[in-house]
User: What shape does this take?
Amino acid sequence: MHDPNEPFENLRPLDVLAIAAHPDDVEQTCGGTLLSMAEFGYRTGVLDLTAGEMGSRGTPDIRIQESQTAAQHLLLAWRQNLRWPDARLENTITARMTLAGVVRRIRPRVVILPYWAGRHPDHYRASEIGYEACFLAGLRRLEEDTVPHRPFKILYSSLYANVTPSFIVDISRQFDRRMTALLSYTSQYGDTETASDLFPSHREIEERLAAIARFYGNLIGVKYGEPFVVKESMQVEDIVNMPVRSI
Ligand SMILES: [Zn+2]
Assistant: This one.
């Protein structure tokens, strides 16, 4: 695992970077995919924008610590937290430039962002700031001390959005480990016998995430899946060997 204080400059480029609003977002929405890519041998990483300090359980330091434990379960090569203000994410020029600077330093080929619409403002703001930062990162004159870099691909994780996915990743073999990663956030999913609207119990969260993953898995004929949306069209070379049965 990397040293959390290591400057971004010294980092080896990542193949996949997921940018999320809160610690534990990626564990819910694209953790299985990140794990599967790490198992393929790709270098994966996560940048959480806030430490989730508006949550009524745990503290920012505890949640960041928990996110590092989760990172180990997901086999991430890198995870950082920008500690921006939780529940008040704003798409400012400073935010975009800071994030663009990070993208230039860690040079991901693929960036995973939250879906661009949703209930929590932090999620859609993170999506918008993330997209615009990826664009800015490719401008030569943005910063003098870094080389321009624009990610090749931007994927939106759409697990909580009621939209048809562009594609689904089979996470059947990664599902249990993704759940273990999520349950590393013991300040959020600790105890508990009693579920409430705000804090679902262990069992409730397991059942809920299993049901969602089963739903998406079912759409491609596997046990568990994670959905993504892309804005551009998908290309196919070989129509004879396309996966997923039609009838
Ligand atoms: Zn969140």
